[in-house]
C-alpha cells in the first residue's frame, strides 16, 4: 500500500505517508510543554505516525490563541520542546512544529491583539490594533527567533501557519485586510507579510531543512479568498516551500461549509495540479482506505488524520493489516494481531 511507503521531504525521510496535523491541546504552562504533551505525542509515535506536527506554537505571547497554548518566544521554552522531539524520535516518528500568530483571534484578554486592519472576528475578541511597520517587524522577528529555537529543540520540519483565520491568513484575505499601504489591496501586496515571514524564517534554516505552509484554500464567504485566488497566492510563494498543507475556512463567522468525509481533498488536488506543488490533504479523513484512495489518485502526497488520532492514536496499526509492525511490539517480539483488525 502506498500509505505505508516512505516519503522524502528534502533531507527528511518519513517512514509512511500518514501525518498527525497540529491540533491545539491548550495544556501548556506559560508556553512550556507539560507531561500531557509528552504522553500525547509519545502515544502518536507509538502509533507509528510517519510525521507528527506539533500544535500551533505562539511566536510571541499574544501570538497564542489561548493562554495555555504552547510557545517558543523565549529560550527557556526550548528544553520542554526538546523532550517532545526526543520522545517522538525514540519511538520512530519524524516530528515538526507549526509556528503561528493568532492575530485578532488571540483570546487572552490581558494582552493587546494585533491584526492587519482593526476589524474584529466577533464580539468575543473585540477590535484589534492595526499593525504599524514596527509591529510587523517585531512579529516577523518573532517567527525568525521561534524558528531558531525550533532548530535548537531538534525539530525536523517547520510549518508556517497561514490558515484558519490567524494572522498570516488575516493579511492574505481581503475580508480582514483593508490596508491601503504596501501590505493591502492587490494579491501581491496581501502576500507581502507572508513573504517577509518566510524570508526571515529561511534565513536561520539550513538549506536542506524542510519548510511547509498551512493555508486555508477558501474562506467560504463571497469576496474572500477562493481556490482561484489561492492558486495565485501559492504561485507567488511556492519556490520557498517544500509542501503545502491544505485546509480551509476559519476567517469569517459567516462561512458556509458543507462537511463530509474528505471535504477538503479537492482543494489539495487543485493546488497540487495547478501549482505543481506537493501537498498534504486533511479534513474528515478517518480510515486508511481513504488515505490510500487519495494517494493512489495523486490528490496529495501525504494525508493527515486529525481528530481520529485523538480518539485512537493506534488507528493506522489497527487498519494496517500487516503493513505496520509497532516498534514496541517489534522490539519485544510480541505478536500484534491483538491490536490489528482481522
Please explain how this structure is put together.
The protein has 342 residues and is an alpha/beta fold. It has a single domain (2-340), classed as Aldolase class I (TIM Barrel). 33% of the residues lie in helices and 15% in strands. It is built from 12 helices and 12 strands. The protein has helices spanning 35-46, 78-90, 133-153, 167-172, 187-190, 192-202, 227-237, 265-275, 288-296, 307-311, 315-319, 327-332, and strands spanning 7-9, 12-14, 18-20, 51-58, 94-100, 114-115, 129-130, 158-162, 211-216, 243-247, 279-281, 302-304. The strands form 3 sheets. Strands 3-4-5-8-9-10-11-12 form an 8-stranded parallel β-barrel, surrounded by 6 helices. A two-stranded antiparallel sheet has the order 1-2. Helix 1 runs parallel beside helix 2 and helix 2 (78-90) crosses helix 3. It is globular, with a radius of gyration of 19 Å. The model is unreliable at 330-342 (pLDDT under 50).
Amino acid at each position: 500500500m502506498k500509505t505505508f511507503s516512505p516519503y522524502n521531504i528534502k533531507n527528511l525521510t518519513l517512514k509512511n505517508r500518514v501525518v498527525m496535523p497540529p491540533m491545539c491541546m491548550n495544556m501548556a504552562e506559560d508556553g512550556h510543554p507539560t507531561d500531557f504533551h509528552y504522553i500525547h505525542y509519545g502515544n502518536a509515535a507509538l502509533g507509528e505516525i510517519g510525521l507528527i506536527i506539533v500544535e500551533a506554537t505562539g511566536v510571541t505571547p499574544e501570538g497564542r490563541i489561548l493562554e495555555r497554548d504552547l510557545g517558543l518566544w523565549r529560550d527557556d521554552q526550548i528544553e520542554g520542546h526538546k523532550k517532545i522531539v526526543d520522545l517522538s524520535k525514540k519511538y520512530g516518528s519524524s516530528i515538526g512544529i507549526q509556528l503561528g500568530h493568532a492575530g485578532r483571534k488571540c483570546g487572552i484578554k490581558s494582552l493587546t491583539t494585533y491584526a492587519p486592519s482593526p476589524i474584529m472576528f466577533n464580539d468575543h475578541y473585540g477590535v484589534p490594533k492595526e499593525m504599524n511597520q514596527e509591529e510587523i517587524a517585531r512579529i516577523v522577528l518573532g517567527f525568525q527567533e521561534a524558528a531558531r529555537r525550533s532548530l535548537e529543540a531538534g525539530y525536523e520540519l517547520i510549518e508556517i501557519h497561514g490558515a484558519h483565520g490567524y494572522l498570516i491568513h488575516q493579511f492574505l484575505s481581503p475580508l480582514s485586510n483593508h490596508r491601503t499601504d504596501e501590505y493591502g489591496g492587490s494579491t501581491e501586496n496581501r502576500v507581502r507579510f507572508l513573504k517577509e515571514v518566510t524570508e526571515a524564517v529561511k534565513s536561520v534554516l539550513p538549506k536542506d531543512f524542510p519548510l511547509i505552509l498551512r493555508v486555508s484554500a477558501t474562506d467560504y464567504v463571497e469576496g474572500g479568498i477562493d481556490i482561484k485566488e489561492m492558486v495565485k497566492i501559492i504561485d507567488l510563494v511556492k519556490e520557498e516551500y517544500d509542501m503545502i498543507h491544505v485546509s480551509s475556512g476559519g476567517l469569517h463567522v459567516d462561512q458556509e461549509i458543507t462537511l463530509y468525509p474528505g471535504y477538503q481533498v479537492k482543494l489539495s488536488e487543485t493546488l497540487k495540479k495547478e501549482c505543481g506543488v506537493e501537498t498534504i490533504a486533511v479534513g474528515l479523513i478517518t480510515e486508511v482506505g481513504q488515505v490510500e484512495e487519495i494517494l493512489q489518485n495523486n490528490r496529495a502526497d501525504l494525508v493527515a488524520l486529525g481528530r481520529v488520532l485523538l480518539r485512537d492514536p493506534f488507528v493506522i496499526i489497527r487498519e494496517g493489516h500487516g503493513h505496520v509492525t509497532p516498534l514496541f511490539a517489534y522490539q519485544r517480539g510480541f505478536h500484534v494481531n491483538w491490536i490489528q483488525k482481522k
